[in-house]
Amino acid sequence: MPPSLVVEVLTARPPPPPPLALPFFLWAGRQKGFRHCFPAFHALALLLSTAGLPAAADQLPDLMRAHGKPVSHPQLTLLVRLHTAARRPLRAFHALRRFRHEFDFKPEVHVCNRVLGALAAAGHVEDALKLFDEMSEAETQPMQ
C-alpha cells in the first residue's frame, strides 16, 4: 500500500469520522514495510482538528516520534495554523512553548507573530506579553 493512499483516505470529501480514520492510520503504520509520509501526519492532524479534537491533533509530534519520523518546523507551523484558525490561541501558545522546550526548537518569526496576534485578538494580553518577552530573550525579533 503506498503512503499516498493513506493521505487520500484522510483527505477524502466528506472526511472520514475520526473513530474510523485514526484506527486506519495506525493499522496502516503496522503493515510490513510501510512507513507514513509527512503529508499523512499532516492530513491526520487536520482531520482531528477540524473534527473538534484539538487535543488529539496536539499529539502529532508524539505520534511522529513513535513512527520514527523527526519533528520539525512544518509540524509546529501546522499546529499553530490549525489552532489560530479555529480560535484556540491558548492551544497555539502551548504548542509553541512545547516545541521550544521539549523539542528545543527556535520558532520562526511568522509562527510567533501569528500566535501573538491570536492571543492579543482573543484578549489574552498577559500571555501575549509573556510570549513577547520569551521571543526577546530568545533573540527572535517579533513583528518583522
UniProtKB/TrEMBL annotation:
PPR repeats lie at residues 108-142. Keywords: Repeat, Transit peptide. Belongs to the PPR family. P subfamily. PANTHER family: OS03G0856100 PROTEIN (PTHR47447), PENTATRICOPEPTIDE REPEAT-CONTAINING PROTEIN (PTHR47447:SF24). NCBIfam families: PPR (TIGR00756). This is Pentatricopeptide repeat-containing protein. It comes from Dichanthelium oligosanthes.
